[in-house]
Amino acid sequence: MAKNLVVLGGGESGVGAAILGKEKGMNVFLSDYGTIADNYRQQLDEEGIEWEDGRHSMDRILAADEVVKSPGIAPSAPVMKAIAEKGIPVISEIEFAGRYTDAKMVCITGSNGKTTTTLLTYHILKNAGLNVGLAGNVGRSLALQVARDHHDVYVIELSSFQLENMYAFRANIAVILNITPDHLDRYEYKMQNYINAKFRILNNLTPQDAFIYWQDDPVITRQLERIRTEAQMFPFAEHHEPGSRAWVDDEASLIIDTPETSLNMPRAELSLNGLHNLYNSMAAALSACILDIDKEEIREALGDFEGVEHRLEYVATVNGVRYINDSKATNVNSCWYALESMPENTVLILGGKDKGNDYSEILPLVKEKVKAIVCMGKDNAKLLDFFGKEVPEIYDTHSIEEAVAKCASVACPGDTVLLSPCCASFDLFNSYEDRGHKFKEQVGKLKA
């Protein structure tokens, strides 16, 4: 008898999982409590997959043999509690797709930098002529690609939410860039729960597999004292340390040293600037070396990669003021990285949906570099209270139009306006992309 597969969530990952389930002969039902976008409705209809939105039909859902859950649905949601009570197995789309492919998997996680590192790794492998797919938090659904568009290698960006429901899945190369507090509202405000979710990327690694990580991350270092992995270790650091496989030498050259390939190139030739991007470049280069990509091709790709939209993205200079879109900075540590690469006299836009943030981490950089903070959110009380006495000027705004106008009035020629909000976007925007696009729109209007 055909297996009953229920897919919860009708976005990119859910629709991909539904199509793969149908391809494998399962009875598939997709349910979304919100509204499914028109393009995904059309896709489901064309595939003849039954779906609903705006509700959950619990009788249908609880008749499932297995549930594939969208990463955005919290385990505490009523539908998930009912499924758990019934004892129905719940897996992620990545876990589901992994059952049906023997492609090599390069899996990347971290609190910050994972999108840049994923896209850079994909860029290197694609330029080297590999048949490579891009999946996870970026690119197309892994399940859809496994169903319809086979690749030899997949580069997958994995959030902690996706890792929660991965069990038998195995990465060939697992990367943890860094771990700092994020999404603590999802993890009962316990940092260890979040760390445990991130470290699930090491599940099932064998001695043939590789683990790439930042050697100086105190959280990763502590966790590695508590757990064991059979994988080969490839740590990276700013300067050479015992065991380092990537570092910068005294001549300011990036050194990559693996059994497969060794290379060095002047740090100045990397297309991405800043210390955080040095680490991203190291992780991507290590992955490429382990996959035995030609060193000249790695060098070339590290030198010509164009950065990620909404991540320290230069927008324009208006009246002598530079505007930078870092809308992807949805946590405090991301904002720290952004401020670290900013000059003095920065006007900083902060605010949005606070996820239990501790702003003390960025305070030294704020004092050193920020001349004014423009708060942008429905409720800015926490920000106003924390930073009120720490900066010369602070303003309370409640829309992107108001925030950008205030920045333009406060900033002088030679200053930088940085949107690096520290918070999720859902109070005023649909997503961090929506926030970034609207910021760029408003900056465009200043030029007009």
Question: Which key phrases capture this entry?
Answer:
20 strands, alpha/beta, 36% helix, Protein-Tyrosine Phosphatase, Chain A, cell wall biogenesis/degradation, 3 domains, Rossmann fold, EC 6.3.2.9, cytoplasm
Overview of the structural elements:
It is found in: Cytoplasm. With 448 residues, the protein is an alpha/beta fold. It has 3 domains: 88 residues, NAD(P)-binding Rossmann-like Domain (Rossmann fold, 3-Layer(aba) Sandwich); 210 residues, UDP-N-acetylmuramoyl-L-alanine:D-glutamate ligase; 135 residues, Mur ligase, C-terminal domain (Protein-Tyrosine Phosphatase, Chain A, Alpha-Beta Complex), CATH 3.90.190.20. The chain is 36% helix and 21% strand. The strands form 4 sheets. The protein has a 6-stranded parallel sheet with strand order 7-8-6-9-10-11, with helices on one face. The protein has a 6-stranded mixed sheet with strand order 15-16-20-17-18-19, sandwiched between helices. A 5-stranded parallel sheet has the order 3-2-1-4-5. The longest helix has 16 residues. The protein is globular. The N and C termini lie far apart (64 Å). The model has no long low-confidence stretch (mean pLDDT 93).
